[in-house]
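Allow me, if you will, to draw on your knowledge of protein folds for a short while. The matter concerns a single protein, recorded as an amino acid sequence and a row of backbone structure tokens. Kindly check, if you would, that the fold set down in the tokens agrees with what the sequence suggests. You will find the record immediately after this paragraph.
***
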Amino acid sequence: MKEKIIINEVGLRDGLQNQPQHVTTEDKVRMAELLVGAGVRWLEPVSFVSPKAVPQMADAAQLTRQLPQGDGLHYTALVPNLRGYQLARDNGYRTVALVLSTTDSFNQRNLNMTLAQAIDSCRSIIQAAGADGIATRTYISGAFSCPYDGLTPVDVTLDLSRQMIDAGSEEIAIADTIGAGNPQQMKDIMAPLIQQYGAERFFVHLHDTRGLATAMAWAACDLGVRKFDASVGGLGGCPFAPGATGNVATEDLVYLFEAAGLDTGIDIQALREVIKLAARATGRELGGRIIHWIQSQEARGRPCDLV
């Protein structure tokens, strides 16, 4: 049997949160249905944030009620604070994602907190979630570079990861929020964490701003990481991180891992319908590198042997 790779689809949340064109709840529900139909089993569809700060997430509760249901589906909600956690809990989420940025500057703009306050906030959410039997995944945002302060020292990312594990967070996601990292940085961060805690504890979250996201994903995979965030069509961008472009495209990660003999369970051809819908809903041209290759092959009447 092929070794399993988990791809957590964040297009509905991280992919849409910064889009200037309003995306309807109906379109989001249809995207979720198509994603599940394509084989996606892990999704982060919403964040419980202030609708004034992130208008695209104003329908989080409404969307949650209409998401596809079934065995093997894993849904996560992003929560920026204790109030957001309580909303996610009350809306039935069994896993929540927390965000802890690596600098005061990034935390102030993202959460309106200092780094110390953000650490305390995460600890409070982790404690509350533990009491409620809800799992937590803490994102170390700006793990490679801060959009305001530049390069993030490896020791900072390692220390924050360890603090969150010590606080009780079941999973840690190492996030290249602005797509400024490189494969060597990935090795420098992940190798000591995996050695100390095991690879199964970690997610990797990548943006493809400088075109290195798939190379970084492979570097993490080579170290043993098997859980990755991605966004269909390469949707994405953080409203509080200048310069952050789209997430690594789901279809590009699927192709990378499937071509290497690993099993994502996701059908690239089926993802094309999601990409078409997302492109119409956002008014943007979308699609990862593998989609453009498929289209070029089709235009020449050539077969598309994806694996």
Q: What stands out?
A: The longest strand covers residues 95-101. The domain at 6-299 is CATH 3.20.20.70 (TIM Barrel).
